[in-house]
Structure formats: structure tokens, C-alpha cells
Amino acid sequence: MADMDPETTTNTAGEEEPLFSNLDLFLFSLIVGLVIYWFMSRKQPEPIPEFKKLDTPTPTTRETSFVEKMKKTGKNIIVFYGSQTGTAEEFANRLAKDSQRYGMKGMSADPEEYSMGELARLAEIENSLAIFCMATYGEGDPTDNAQDFYDWLQENDDEDLSGLNYTVFSLGNKTYEHYNAMGKYVDKRLEELGAKRIFDLGLGDDDGKLEEDFVSWREQFWPAVCEHFGVEASGDESSIRQYELKVHTDVNMNKVYTGEIGRLKSFEVQKPPFDSKNPFLAPVTVNRKLNKAGDRHLMHLELDITGSKIRYESGDHVAVFPTNDSELVNKLGEILGVDLDVVISLNNLDEESNKKHPFPCPTTYRTALTHYLDITNPPRTNVLYELAQYASDPKDQENMRKMASSSPEGKALYQNWVLDSCRNILAVLENMPSLKPPIDHLCELLPRLQARYYSIASSSKVHPNSIHICAVVVEYKTKTGRFNKGVATNWLKNKLVNGHKSTVPMYIRKSQFRLPFKASNPVIMIGPGTGIAPFMGFIQERGWLKQQGKEVGETVMYFGCRHKNEDYIYQEELEEAEKNSFLTQLNVAFSRDQDHKIYVQHHLKKNKEHLWKLINTDNAHIYVCGDARNMAKDVQTAFYEIAEEYGSMTRTQATDYVKKLMTKGRYSQDVWS
Question: What stretches pass through the bilayer (predicted)?
Fold first, then answer.
């Protein structure tokens, strides 16, 4: 047998065996299975998707040249407004609208949105005119939106405005030290830079009859414009609509505004920074009544600002956005016979206007009347004039138009029937049953509901995540027997801690009401009633500084209220501060606990010598907060008398002395009327 493999020989010698054993087959199957599993389960590379190149539109930029805008839209009158509470803006809109009746075309403008350095270029437009409706805020300051314009006027001495025609209507309050300071400054400064005044400065007094002041000025202003430019009134006194109504029958409710001030859904997804156009929703953690007895309701609220990145200093103001009473809103809907839950937009007929809507749209009538429109203040004369056409009774029409006129009889009727009787728009509609205006026109005419400002009653050194508010609830009976309620204070009163409506849309407004830079300077604080608010923050801060080992000067408090056992608010806190020497002297005047009235100024006069030493020798800073009409003036007079007696001055010298303290920032006021 030829060369045989020994292994083969062995196999053939006995019983024949298979080519592969069971173990071989098992191992082979396992390997094949693992290979198949690997191929099947390994991650395939994902295909790279093809993206189409998108045509991205160039982002639109807001037109900052008002001259180019006026040329583009055929306008020749521009009405700038410096407004803090909305009144100056309202007057500006009325003047811009008026211009159409005189063959001219006007636009209202926020100076913050435009380059005011272009005023000289206004001469490029034939028969052009700039009107300035300027309110004064605080201690003779410009409003927030007019601050840049004010700075520009101060800094540009070489500006030539010789081609500019202008006039100014100023809004102020006679109870304040610097009455109409901003309007007077703009009027004087524009003339200094060469501009031509075509009509006298108008002065409106919010403590008196602001609406009457404006109407009287306006009635004389337009004839002067006609004479200057050689134009005539059209004679058309019909109502001019600025917005057109669009009713949305099929709208995505996620695109509908529900009370947001600026960005849609901003109350659901909060993003800093927080300001007037983007308020922070602060939870209310404390809401307690401060007074022990009496028929008033004084309250202390605490707002939680944890995580908001909001910073504040003692003396700043907190602004809150209130909402109107739902009862008033429902009554308006009933009396006008409308479904308040219809989704609408009011769209500006002037497509080039920066102001596309009078309030955030689309929204419902209910939301507009609840969050966006002022329905509690007496309506201004222009609202009555525009609505008169909807009265079916000729007598109602006549009276409404009469109240909007500048005739003595019309002014008296408006003063008595609207202002003195405190009639809001609902009361007007109730007392004039023939008046049935379309709700969209009413919403166009009503002014915006404004934020309310409160002096912060806490120090961020002690309460970095909390802002405290001290306020008195406003409620009174009118001559017509109605009960009127203050919008913000009643809304705040009903903010239940951990309740359904326990958040407050708010932001901070910086103030000049500041503690001295040197803690060693003494401070004299005069704040009766809720005027104590900023001083609670001051006392907390001075106490904190003392605990840090800083040298802190005398901290003197003058507080006043009616009765010790009724409205001595923060009594425990003040007495504790005095006990801990955070307050070196606490003087309290209880005005009605004895036969004769005792006020804070009487206590000032009792401590004349000590006060004079603090002011004249120790460089004390004086702070006054509260009522501007009486208290602030009486306190100032008390300081005149102290300077006269202990500084051996005449009244004129004493007045100058106090005024110099104000100029140096050593006599500060946070007052209201």
C-alpha cells in the first residue's frame, strides 16, 4: 500500500467516524453566529443630511432718523414727548392728530427712539415744526425717556438750530420745588441754540387743572400755527380714527397677549434683565396690615426677588404693574353689550408708525380693559369729544362737546360733572344711557394703565432677595355716591401670600434719594405716615453698617401719624432700632391725640439747636418724604426759621442757605401730591 497517512490508517482500521465532530460543528456555528451578529448590530454611519441654503432676510433696523421718516411719509410736524406716567405722551398724540385738521401731517415721537442731533435738519422739510410735550419728574429731573435728549441739549453748545421752528408745552406740579423745570429748560435752551419759538411756552399744573391748561393753550396754539405757516383750518371737526379693528376668528391662542407688557409669554418664561418693558413676576411672601385700628388700611408687603438678578439700593423706587378690578371690566362689557373674550387687534392706519398698536395685540377686550387701559381715572376732554358722536340724545352730544371746548361754561361743566364728581368712563356711560360707543373706538381712546411707584421700605444690605412696600389703601366715596378704589393699592391688598394671585409684575427705578457716601455724616429723616417707607431702608442700612464696625453718624427720625394706638406703623421696629442705637433719636408726632394738632414740623422746632449743630457743623443730610402740598413746605419753612434764629440770617439768606443744601445734595425730597 503506497504511503498511507498513519492517522488514516488508524481510522480505517476500526469503525468509520464523521468528518467533523459535534464539538467542531458547535464551535463553527457559534463563530458564524457571532460574525452575523456583529455585522447586523454594528452602528452604521449616519448619512449626512443635505441642508438647503436658507435665504436669511436682512434684519430690519428701527429708523432712527425722524427727518428721513417724515420725508418718507409726508409729515411736517413732529411732537416729541418726555413722559413718565403717560400724560405727556397722550397730549403729544392729541396734537399730532390735531394737525390733520389744519392741512398738516404730524407724528408723535419718543426722543429715546430717535437721533435728536438731527433737529437742525428739520429745516429741510418745508413748513416744519417741532413740538415738545415735556413732563418734569422728581426734583426737576427729565423723565426716563427724555434723559438722553436732556444730556444732548446740555452738552452741545455749538449746535446751530437756527432753521428749527418749535414750541413747548410743559407738564408739572406747583406743589413741587422745581415746577415745570424740564419744559422751561427745553424752551430756553432751544432758543439759546438759535431755534425760533413760534408760540409761547405752555405750563400745565397737575395739582390744579392740567387738562384745562392744555386745552386753553392748544386752542390758542393752532391759530398761531395757521398764521405763521399761512395755512387754514379745514373746518372738518369729525372724528379721526388712528387704528382699525381686526377681529380674529381663527387664531392660535398661544399667539394672543394675556397681560404681558412687552414680549409674548414673558410671564411664563422669565428672562433677565428686568425693566419697564420686561417686568419680573415677584412672589408676595408677606402681606400684613400695619395699623392696629382706624378706618384706613395701611399695609406692608414683601416681594421675593430671589434668582432675578435684580439689584436695588435704599431710596430706590419699585414700580408695579397693577390690573383693573374685574367687576369694573365686566360692567363695561355689560353696558356696551359686547363679548369681552373676542380676540382682536387694533392696527395703526399709518403703516410707517413705530407704534403699530395702542397696546399689545392680538388680545381680547377683557385683557385690554384689565391689564392695558386706564378705566378708573376721569376721561380727558378729547375722549368725550370723540365719543359724543355715539350719543343718540342730542342733549348728551351737546354737553360732551361743550365739556371738550375751551369756553368758560364748558370748562366749568367738565370740572364739576367729571373731575369734581370723580366720574370714570363707566360712570359717564351709566349717567348717559344714550351713549353707546363701539368698544374698539373706546379702547383706542383710553390712555394706557401705568405702573405705580413706591419708595422701597428695605435695605438690600439686610434684605438682598426681598423688596418691601409700605402703602395705604385708597378708597373714597364720590359726590355721586359711588365708591372709587385706588387701582394699585386695592390690587396689592388682595395679593394673598401663597395664594392664586400672589405675584406682582415689578421692576426697579433708580433714585437720587441716597444715604450720604460717608456713613459718619449724620442723617435727619422726616417722614410722616407712609412717608416713612424709604427711612425703614435707611435705618436698616445704618444699623448694618454699625454692625460691620463702621463709624456711623447720628441717625435722627421724625415720624408722624394720627393716633398712637391706631396708626403708629412700624412702632416695634422703630423702638427696637432706638434700643440698639441704630436710631440715635426717635421723635413721633401724634397729630390727633390732643386738642391741638401736633405735626413733625412742631417737633423740628422743639429741637432747633440740636438740628442746627447737625446741619451747620456736622454736615448732616436732610431727607423729607411724604405729602408735597403741605408737609414738605411746612418742614422747609421750619428749617428756614432754624437758619434765621441760629445762623443769624434774614429770611432771604435762610432760603438761599436751604437751597444751597439742595444743590449740594444735602436736602433731598421724595414727595408726592
Answer: 20-40
* Same domain? 87 vs 194: yes
Catalytic residue among 152, 544, 612, 672: 672
Compute CA distances 561 → 126, 262, 455, 639, whole Å.
60, 40, 18, 21
477 and 584 in one domain? no
How much is the mean pLDDT over the chain?
A: 91
Q: Which residues participate in the annotated binding site for NADP(+)? A: 296, 530, 591-592, 597-601, 634
Is 672 catalytic? The answer is yes
Please indicate whether residue 42 or residue 654 has the higher confidence score (pLDDT): 654
Q: Are 497 and 286 in contact (CB under 8 A)?
A: yes
Q: How far apart are CA 347 and CA 360, in angstroms?
A: 10
In this prediction, residues 161-185 reach a mean pLDDT of 94
Do 174 and 87 lie in one domain? The reply is yes
Q: What pTM does this model have?
A: 0.87
Same structural domain, 476 and 593: no
In this structure, the answer to whether residues 385 and 497 fall within a common structural domain is no
Annotated binding residues, written as ranges, equal 83-88, 135-138, 171-180, 206, 296, 452-455, 470-472, 476, 486-489, 530, 591-592, 597-601, 634, 672
Contact 565, 292 (CB under 8 A): yes
Q: What is the pLDDT of residues 249-304, one digit of tens each?
A: 999 999 999 999 999 999 999 999 999 999 999 999 999 999 999 999 999 999 99
Q: Is the pLDDT of residue 597 over 60?
A: yes
Using alpha carbons, select from 175, 174, 200 the residue that is nearest to residue 188. Answer: 200
Annotation marks residue 455 as catalytic = yes
* Residues 332-349: b if buried by 16+ CB within 10 A, e if exposed: bbeebebebeebbbbbee
Residue 177: which pLDDT band, with cuts at 50, 70 and 90?
A: confident
Which one is catalytic: 314, 455, 459, 668?
A: 455
Query: Residues 98, 625, 627, 668: which is the catalytic one?
Result: 625
- Tell whether 308 and 352 lie within a shared domain: no
Question: What residues form the annotated binding site for FAD?
Answer: 452-455, 470-472, 476, 486-489, 672
**Segments forming the whole domain that contains residue 604:** 523-671
Q: State the cell numbers at 413.
A: 361743566
Give per-residue pLDDT as tens, 491-541.
999 998 876 669 999 999 999 999 999 999 999 999 999 999 999 999 999
pLDDT band at 33 (very low <50, low <70, confident <90, very high): low
Query: Active-site residue 670, yes or no?
Result: yes
439 torsion bin: left (phi>0), alpha (psi -120 to 50), beta (else) = alpha
Task: Read off the CATH number of the domain in which 381 is found.
Answer: 1.20.990.10
Residue 29 designated active-site = no
